[in-house]
Amino acid sequence: MIALSINNWNENRKNAIEETKILQELKNSISTDIKQLNLRLEWGKRDIHYATSLLNHVEKKLPYNDSLNKQFVIISMAGIEKMFSPQISIYKVLESKGIDLISSDKLKKQVLDLYNIEYPKLDYEYENYRINIHDYGRPIARTQFTIENYEDPVMKPADYNSLSSSIEFINTVKVIRVNSFAINGILEGLIKKCQEIENIIDNELEK
To answer: pLDDT for 135-184, tens place per residue?
Structure first.
């Protein structure tokens, strides 16, 4: 009985040490994700501002000016700024060792939801955004704009008057704005959820 008790104590101690290590690394990964999410939130706010400015310009029939050239870029922009690559290495390790290594049921559920529901939801919205850019925005960019300075691109319309009355262009900008609002809503929710998980991890590590 004593030997069994010692073995159980050793096993529990080993699991506790392993859980602490996993939680510390998980927190580091989520902290990195939060920085990436915040950056993409700022990019999304920029795109909403550009889209709103462009729509305001054409709806009020304001004259063309060079400052619009930077804003027009949103109809063709769907690179790394419209992608999210979470740090998943430690979650994969956790999966391989068994999610029950996390002793807190609340934390366990939050982590599972984050990696299996919340992050994929953001990826889905970004994919929808990229499809809209590819199918609608870029054809307009190729046919109705001159693209200058590819490192920090600007797009100059070939015929602003024609462009500003184009239903296809206006609808594309509206779709981009709607997509950006949807994505930013998800980003804000994810940042809060990640911060909540960080706090729960801190509480678990203090025990």
So the answer is: 999 999 999 999 887 778 899 999 999 999 999 999 999 999 999 999 99
Which string of b and e fits 43-80 if b means at least 16 CB within 10 Å? bbeebbebbeebeebbeeeeeeeeebbebbbbbbbbee
- 58's tokens: 């054409």
Report the percentage of the chain scoring pLDDT > 70.
93
For the chain, the average pLDDT equals 91
Spatial neighbors of 191 by CB under 8 A, at least 6 apart, are 34, 37, 38, 41
Dump the DSSP string for the chain: -HHHHHHHHHHHHHHHHHHHHHHHHHHHHHHHHHHHHHHHHHHHHHHHHHHHHHHHHHHTTPPP-TTHHHHGGGGT--SGGG------HHHHHHHHH-GGGS--HHHHHHHHHIIIIIHHHHHHHHHHHHHHIIIIIHHHHHHHEEEE-TTS-EEEES-HHHHHT-HHHHHHHHHHHHHHHHHHHHHHHHHHHHHHHHHHHHHHHH-
Dist. CA 187–CA 169, nearest whole Å: 27
Report the percent of the chain where pLDDT is more than 90.
80
